[in-house]
Design brief:
The complex is a heterodimer of chains A (296) and B (261). Chain A has 296 residues and is mainly alpha-helical. Chain A has helices at residues 45-69, 81-93, 96-128, 130-144, 151-159, 163-187, 191-199, 204-241, 247-256, 260-288. Chain B folds into two domains: 3-78 and 155-260, Rossmann fold; 87-153, no CATH class. The chains are: A mainly alpha (296), B alpha/beta (261). The structure holds adenosine-5'-triphosphate and magnesium ion. Magnesium ion binds next to α1 of chain B.
Chain lengths: 296, 261
């Protein structure tokens, strides 16, 4: 409406004409919700920590209420928080907790590393070349749907209750998932980035090493972080069934003596360990891929 | 005039699930050394397909393209390409992105670094040599891409709607910059766009492509004086040139509409 002609466009012609206000009316205040309640909104770090801490504390309170508070649940099924805490303290003092953690962490590191070291090159390869995709992807997909639990008896047959058997379970549980996830990360590398490399006259090996892997790296790191979380589950599964040490083993023995405090204490320890690994992986990822900061 | 780039009888047929799709048919044109030629046409008429074939990223099904009399069979450093999408490597800063293109050259590290900084100065980004792509605006990213493509001194620069994703004002700035750089350094350029005004403003010659199958329909010599400046756009000669370019496109879109009815 820039070509304002000779017809005045202000006010209705036969309606009541309002007197021109000599003071600008206050605009109605924009009703603002805190950004954290908006779709795609933002949140301050300290609010985030505060809110999540409150949820943890609330759960702790409900736990206390159900046990010591009202006595609704028998200690055999769910012991009160302080009993669990005392049991854990005892385990710390007699050194058992550290020994169990050390064994379990060692197993998870070896099993997970063995899976990742193989999964990364294979995933990148089948995400890059259709030939390798055709030869490997259906096979991996097939094995992936076999329940890991069903492999436990088989691995015991192969390797007894040794550490090797734990590595095998962790490996089976993570490797096949990793391959598919990393294939997907690799396929997401923009086609034009590859074409750009070709216009520079780069060889395929150069494009693979200097463009595709680098470009897929942040996604691959995320896939590793997610599968590391799953690896904890497979580790405990292996230790529950057949072990003579480790966090999962301690849980099984505790069950034999109806030591519910110890079971719950160790489950909580496993939760905390998982949380810590995830945060460490996230922090490392932020360090490695700092260049993408404003895009993430 | 000797022709630098020659396209003869070029055709491209894609095999798709629903049958064969003739994207290009009997395309013929030449570009002289240091000539700036634009290719305009409606969306989907095969511009990118043609450019990819010249870049060596795709192969024709008929005819071919020749550079300095040599048939083009694959990609090579004698041709530089600026893509429509942002193709900077996000893990490298601006300077390293340009250096990346110079890796194949016979240069020391310091020489490469100086060459990269010089190229970035050329496109007015000397203050952003340490910035990462994620910190740059779209226009700046394309300027880095241009600097990068020029850095290894290709014989021909190929540009596929490099300003297509930019807003109108940034586009203007980029057109002016590209024209300036080109007028100073001269290079053989094949530039793709669907913006007629842009094509006329920056080119020596505009090729108009027709749709389905893609074919050169019209050729308009742009005899505006150089150096160019934006005041020419409002001139009557510019309007006449626009009319010449638009007419065949217009006639065709009418045909397409009628055919659809
Ligand atoms: N790999 C392919 N397989 C099948 N058909 C294709 C392929 N690439 C392009 N086409 C088809 O060829 C035609 C030309 O495509 P092209 O991308 O060259 O058009 P364009 O002129 O660059 O369009 P735009 O202006 O939208 O970028 C289109 O109809 C497209 O669908
Ligand atoms: Mg295109």
């Amino acid at each position: 409406m820039t070509n304002g002609g000779d017809t005045p466009s202000t006010g209705p012609i036969d309606g009541p004409v309002e007197p021109p206000p000599d003071e600008r009316p206050l605009l109605p205040r924009h009703r603002r919700r805190p950004a954290m309640f908006e779709i795609g909104g933002s949140i301050r770090t300290h609010s985030f920590i505060l809110i999540s801490a409150c949820v943890f504390l609330a759960l702790l309170f409900v736990w206390w209420l159900l046990t010591s508070g009202t006595g609704m649940v028998k200690p055999l099924f769910l012991p009160p928080p302080d009993a669990v805490f005392n049991t854990l303290k005892e385990q710390v003092n007699n050194g058992e907790l550290w020994a169990d953690m050390r064994v379990s962490i060692y197993r998870i590191l070896v099993g997970f590393a063995a899976a990742s070291v193989l999964a990364i090159p294979i995933g990148v390869l089948i995400g890059t070349y259709r030939f390798w995709e055709a030869s490997i992807e259906p096979l991996v997909d097939f094995v992936r749907y076999m329940p890991v639990v069903a492999f436990v008896p088989l691995t015991i047959l192969w390797s007894g209750t040794s550490d090797l058997q734990k590595f095998e379970i962790i490996w089976i549980g993570t490797f096949f998932q990793q391959v598919l996830m990393i294939m997907d990360n690799t396929k997401r590398v923009p086609r034009d980035l590859v074409d750009f490399g070709r216009t520079l006259g780069m060889k395929d090996s150069g494009i693979l090493g200097r463009i595709i892997i680098r470009s897929a790296a942040p996604g691959i790191w995320d896939s590793l972080r997610i599968t590391l979380g799953w690896a904890w589950t497979w580790l405990v599964l292996a230790e529950l069934v057949a072990a003579t040490s480790g966090l999962g083993y301690r849980i099984t023995t505790a069950q034999r003596f109806f030591d519910t405090e110890l079971i719950i204490g160790y489950i909580l320890v496993l939760g905390v360990l998982g949380l810590i690994t995830d945060q460490v992986m996230k922090a490392l990822g932020r360090r490695f891929f700092r260049y993408a900061e404003s895009e993430r | 005039m000797s022709s630098k780039l020659e396209i003869r009888g070029l055709g491209k047929t894609f095999k798709t699930r629903s049958g064969e799709l003739k994207a290009l048919e009997d395309v013929n044109f030449e570009i002289a050394e240091n000539e700036f030629v634009s290719l305009v046409g409606t969306s989907g008429c095969g511009k990118s397909t043609l450019l990819n074939i010249v870049a060596g990223l795709d192969h024709p099904t008929e005819g071919g393209a020749w550079l300095d009399g040599e048939p083009i069979t694959g990609p090579g450093r004698d041709r530089g390409m600026v893509f429509q999408t942002y193709t900077l490597l996000p893990w490298l800063n601006t300077r390293q992105n340009v250096e990346f293109a110079l890796r194949g050259e016979d240069m020391t590290r310091a020489e490469r670094r100086d060459a990269a900084i010089e190229q970035l100065e050329l496109v007015g980004l000397s203050e952003f040599v340490d910035a990462y792509p994620s910190q740059l605006s779209g226009g700046m990213r394309q300027r880095v891409a241009i600097a990068r493509a020029l850095s290894y001194r290709p014989e021909v620069l190929l540009m596929d709607e490099p300003f297509g994703a930019l807003d109108a004002l940034t586009r203007r700035v980029m057109q002016e910059l590209l024209t300036e750089v080109w007028e100073r350094h001269r290079l053989t350029v094949l530039f793709i766009t669907h913006d007629v005004e842009e094509a006329i403003y920056i080119s020596d010659r505009v090729l108009v492509m027709k749709n389905r199958p893609g074919k050169i329909k019209e050729e308009v010599e742009i005899d505006l004086p150089r150096p160019r400046d934006f005041s020419m756009i409002s001139g009557s000669h510019f309007a006449e040139l626009s009319r010449q370019v638009l007419e065949p496109i217009h006639a065709e879109s009418k045909q397409v509409v009628q055919a659809a009815e």
